[in-house]
Design goal:
Rossmann fold; 3 domains; 23 helices; six-stranded parallel β-sheet; single chain; globular
Length: 590
């Protein structure tokens, strides 16, 4: 441990005469950081100091964007701040696509970035980059460390802002000349955590009155529920009313999809059971969700006659697109707890809500029985839904699903075609940057090493980030990647067909051998070409993961079999439809 020195200005101790990177590493140790994802430039910048902290593992990624994806997924499943590093110039620039996704996902991550010396700024010094100009639009806070003595204050502020209030990515740039300085730097003290605002009691009372009067209420849980660790309060309110619970992709996992109150997702990701629950609702409680285009279907797939209550920690998000009757600004966990207490104290008659939930549950059970038959491993063409159904069956639903977002991988969003348990999903935000799932799965595995982590990905996203397979091998992070291989860009190609366009730049005429590639990287890999091959291959994959070996299953699928929700969304929201569409059956319920 570094020696103590003179008092800090506020009365605390100093680290003694050290450089900023040493002080930063001390801060990481105090925050109990486990991993720093990234690629080193000069090892004197961060990595030499990390060598003295064996409890912090530097994870060497193969490309800098991957470090953001891994930090995001790690943060989501661990509940901690994800930390990453990049070198100046192209290293920092490669972070931007990931930071864009992290910003919209409100992901609590900290980027530590080296920069060129200020002494030669504007003179053409090597890798001089306008880092701050690039980072500010996609960061909750972006700051340049100009004075070594401010290292501690900057790091304390960075961790506080990353996780308090509406979480988000924080960006800290350390120029080379500042990093080279040695001075007396105050010792790091962990900033206050758990700073959570509750809602105005008068507005809570008004919201309780609305909920108590409801006969068919629905709760829509967004990513804010998971970020607030409010899963217990969500479940308590669903039972107290009672009410159906729907989620957005970012909110998925805030309630187990095996729970009686869980009915699936909204918008593009609707199935029969979730559509019925929302369409029949007379009251909708939105918690921690922006309800942007894909979640609301351009605000067309929403019951506009329903009374709306909105809960969000950020006043900016209130009435951004859907105007609520009542709005509650505060932490999702605290506000949901306030609503539970209010509903229980009100003692309002719940008989009609119970009856409505019973009807929805009966409809859902009938729908799920039909889906089970639909997903049976039959026929000659391999279908994505058959693969996902088998994963749920063979892994008993005990997985963390890390999503991509393409035409075929969308099947993994549709419950009950794939069901996730509590805390069981990591999904992109509305930017849906390709590669988040492929690389992020490694961060999820490091964050929850006891869990089985499955990434469902199209062949395009996989090819972008297959280079991270050896990262999984190197850091003992056995992940299962399921490639839905249609040798092209399925979603754009579907749109080309629906609009009568030619298939231009959507087919991979030169396609790698994914199995050979994965094996060359050190993973177990197999190809699946027929329905009867699914279960045996998944059993071997499970054995491979148990032995600590990452696994890749390359599945050549029927590219024109699309989820019903996908087809309906394109028709009802965007006005696009294929003649004679071959999607799944429409009305499953008896």
């Amino acid at each position: 441990m570094a020696p103590s020195g003179v008092d800090r200005e506020a009365g605390g101790e100093s680290t003694g005469t050290v450089g900023p990177w040493a002080a930063i590493v001390e801060a990481l140790g105090a925050e109990e950081v486990e991993y720093v994802f990234g690629l080193p430039g000069s090892p004197t910048l961060l990595y030499n100091d990390l060598a003295d902290r064996p409890e912090i593992t530097p994870v060497l990624v193969r490309m800098e964007t991957s470090s953001v994806f891994m930090a995001m997924a790690y943060a989501r499943v661990s509940g901690k701040v994800g930390v990453l590093h990049a070198s100046p110039g192209p290293g920092m620039a490669n972070l931007v696509p990931g930071l864009l996704e992290a910003f919209y996902a409100c992901s609590p991550i900290l980027s530590l970035v080296s920069a060129a010396d200020r002494n030669y700024e504007g003179m053409g010094v090597f890798q001089e980059t306008p880092s701050m100009d690039l980072a500010r639009p996609v960061s909750k806070w972006a700051v340049r460390l100009d004075i070594p003595e401010r290292t501690t204050w900057t790091m304390e502020r960075a961790f506080a802002l990353a996780r308090n209030g509406k979480p988000g990515p924080v960006f800290v740039e350390i120029p080379g000349d500042v990093a080279a300085a040695s001075t007396s730097i105050p010792r790091y003290e962990r900033p206050l955590v758990g700073l959570r605002p509750a809602a105005d009691p008068a507005l809570v009372e008004r919201a309780v009155h609305v909920l108590a009067a409801a006969e068919a209420p629905v709760i829509v849980a967004g990513g804010g529920v998971a970020l607030a660790h409010a899963e217990t309060e969500l479940s308590e309110l669903a039972r107290a009313l009672p009410a159906a619970v729907l989620t957005t992709p970012s909110g998925r996992g805030s309630i187990s999809e095996y729970d009686r109150h869980a009915f699936g997702q909204v918008g593009l990701y609707r199935t029969d059971s979730s559509a019925k629950a929302l369409d029949d609702a007379d009251t909708v409680l939105l918690v921690g969700t922006r309800m942007e285009e894909f979640q609301s279907g351009l605000w067309k797939l929403f019951p506009h006659e329903a009374r709306v209550i909105q809960v969000d920690i950020d006043p900016f998000e209130i009435a951004r697109n859907i105007k609520p009757e009542t709005a509650l600004v505060g932490d999702a966990g605290l506000v949901l707890a306030q609503l539970v207490a209010g509903v229980e104290a009100a003692g309002a008659d719940s008989a009609k809500r119970v009856a409505h939930l019973d009807d929805l549950s009966a409809f859902k059970e009938s729908f799920e029985r039909a889906v089970e038959l639909e997903c049976a491993p039959q026929g000659e063409e391999l279908k994505t839904k058959q693969i996902l159904s088998a994963v749920n069956r063979i892994f008993d639903g005990e997985t963390i699903l890390v999503n991509e977002n393409g035409g075929q991988d969308l099947w993994s969003y549709y419950c009950p075609y794939f069901k996730v348990g509590l805390h069981g999903c990591v999904a992109p935000a509305e930017q849906t940057v390709m590669g988040l799932g492929v690389a992020g799965a490694i961060g999820a595995k490091l964050g929850r090493p006891e869990a089985t982590v499955v990434c469902v990905t199209g062949d395009s996203a996989f090819q972008m980030y297959a280079k991270e397979i050896p990262t999984a091998v190197q850091y003992d992070a056995p992940v299962l990647w399921i490639i839905l291989n249609n040798a092209g860009l399925g979603w754009p190609k579907w749109i080309q067909r629906a609009t009568g366009e030619k298939y231009i730049a959507t087919d991979f005429d030169a396609q790698p051998d994914h199995v050979a590639l994965a094996r060359a990287y050190g993973a177990h890999a197999e190809a699946i070409a027929a329905p009867d091959e699914i279960a045996p291959a998944l059993e071997r994959a499970r054995a491979s993961l148990a032995e600590g070996l990452p696994c890749v299953l390359d599945c050549v699928i029927d590219t024109w079999d699309y989820p019903r929700g996908f087809v309906d969304f394109h028709r009802d929201v965007w006005g696009l439809e294929l003649p004679g569409d071959r999607s799944s059956a429409t009305d499953h319920a008896e």
